[in-house]
Amino acid sequence: MAARKAVEKELTREMIMDAARDLFAEKDYQQVSMRQIATKLNYSHGAIYYHFKNKAELFYALVKDHFLMLNQRIEEIVDGEASNEEKLRKLYLGYIEFGLTHQNHYEIMFMIKNDEVRNFMSESPMLTYQNFARQVSKLSEKEMSIQEIWSIFISLHGFVSHYLGHVTTFDDVKRAAEFHANMLLRWTSA
Amino acid sequence: MAARKAVEKELTREMIMDAARDLFAEKDYQQVSMRQIATKLNYSHGAIYYHFKNKAELFYALVKDHFLMLNQRIEEIVDGEASNEEKLRKLYLGYIEFGLTHQNHYEIMFMIKNDEVRNFMSESPMLTYQNFARQVSKLSEKEMSIQEIWSIFISLHGFVSHYLGHVTTFDDVKRAAEFHANMLLRWTSA
DNA sequence: TCCTTTAATTAACCAGTGTTCAATTGTAGT
DNA sequence: ACTACAATTGAACACTGGTTAATTAAAGGA
To answer: Which residues face B164 on adjacent strands?
Structure first.
């Protein structure tokens, strides 16, 4: 009975992911439904299943992208022009900014409890942390133990996870973030 | 058609709250249903509505209790016998222990995004933090700014929120928690 | 004893979920 | 023009959820 959309704009994985990304800006994994995504795209919910096996696979595709983004952001900062201390500060702020700019994805990347989703990610969070830790180790004035760096990471995560949901953009807490970053810098300076 | 339970053990608000508490040890607000609570109690789901107006009210009653517990724990530590530094360490560890011992409640107390629940809590989290901050201010060697204390709190929250869901008991990460607490003590020592 | 109050059950309603699948369509290749 | 195929639809399935309301049963007082 049903008509097909003009083929000029066939539904693609990208389009679906974009729509899902948008909905994620407001709600979390459980609250975003396949039907909502389809509605946003003006397609039927069944169509999504032609491009993605199921909900979990769709969201895994998103998460993978975001881990890539975060890793790139870290490298971008480290490869830039600045003193080591300045780079460290940027690293800390960059992490917070990323978390608060992609709040619902940060949640999936580092906070989700749902096993269905977590199984898909496996080692991505750990790899990102290891990358982060290696850079902190290189940039800090004094020799840092693994545990010390872990405390830094935990503290950054604390900042993001606290403001997550209570605040809409990074700029809302930029000054607080800068202060927190400075506090963490005390641990790496001789 | 239906029978009533023997009146020796009438259903009470306490019983319902206990059952809900238990289910919370495994799942979060959205995943715990009124029907599950009722099943656990061997009562029908309708019975709960005789004692609580709705789901949100039931969980608010739980949350209120837990804010009380946390505040008591803080006072307990501060009023105890120990050096100021030792009390601070205990304060930090106590906070983490509380968070990881009552994981799903911690989530509701400090991490929930759901407006339905958040409206019920209003200022409880802030009052708890203010209490915490006052004590840290008293116990630290040097004069601490509001922002510095806030960083400590954020960092503690980070520890809890990271391990939340990845770990079952406080003991699983006791040593890591102790290390983290020591890191935070560096900020308060002269 | 009857009557009222209280407490519990159950069915029902409504709204939503992820997923599957037969049916249908548009389009490109022959 | 015909066909093969990829893409899309929408109904249907099998759930789960919170909440309400009519109904029933027990307990206690008059």
So the answer is: B167
User: How far apart (Å, rounded) are the C-alpha atoms in residues B170 and B160?
Assistant: 10
pLDDT of residue B122: 73
Measured in angstroms, what separates residue B38's CA from nucleotide D25's C1'?
19
Convert the pLDDT of each residue in B158-169 to its tens digit. 999 999 888 989
Q: Are the C-beta atoms of B27 and B108 separated by less than 8 Å?
A: no
B168 touches chain A (CB under 8 A): no
By three-state DSSP, how is residue A32 classified? coil
Q: What are phi and psi of A159, to 5 degrees?
A: -65, -50
- Could you tell me if A159 lies within 8 Å of chain B, comparing CB atoms? yes
| CATH class belonging to B8-52 | mainly alpha
Nucleotides of D under 7 A from a protein CB: 7-11, 16-27
Low-confidence ranges of chain B (pLDDT < 70): 1-9, 113-119
What is the C-alpha to C-alpha distance for residues B35 and B183, in angstroms, rounded to an integer?
45
Tens digits of per-residue pLDDT, A88-117?
A: 999 999 999 999 998 888 888 887 766 666
* Yes or no: domain A63-188 corresponds to CATH 1.10.357.10: yes
- C-alpha of B20 from chain center: 14
